Amino acid sequence: MLQCAAKQGWDLVISLKRNLPELHAPAVRLFAHRLPDVEVTETMRGKTYRGQIWDTPGLPLSTADPQLVRVVRSEEQLTQNHYPKFVTTGTKPGLSH
Asked: Which end of the chain lies in a sparser environment, N or C, as judged by fewer CB atoms within 10 Å?
């Protein structure tokens, strides 16, 4: 498929997930000991989003296929900032003890 796309002059994006461990694991190891190339943090409506991107162009696809590919890894982390809860004491109307 890669050769067909190359003949057409197309660029492909292939998403590697854990369902293909033989491809996913080497991609994760590629960036394991390296800081991300880009880090972004943004807070909106009580939520903090943190994104990280690693990017490496020009790696051979495999020993059998030396076509160069670009490998990009991204991670996103979401943190919800919880607001303090107010504690009230006493009884509420209509409730019995």
From this structure: C
| Residue 59 structure tokens | 């790696």
- Give the tens place of pLDDT for each residue, 76-90: 998 887 665 555 555
**Whether 72 contacts 54, CB under 8 Å:** yes
Contact 33, 42 (CB under 8 A): no
More confident of the two residues 10 and 82: 10
Residues 64/92, Cβ–Cβ less than 8 Å: no
Task: Return d(Cα 62, Cα 59) in angstroms, integer.
Answer: 9
Which amino acid is it at 1? M
- DSSP-derived letter for residue 6 is H
How many other C-beta atoms are found inside a 10 Å radius of the C-beta of residue 73? 18
List the Cα angle 66/68/70 in 5-degree steps: 145
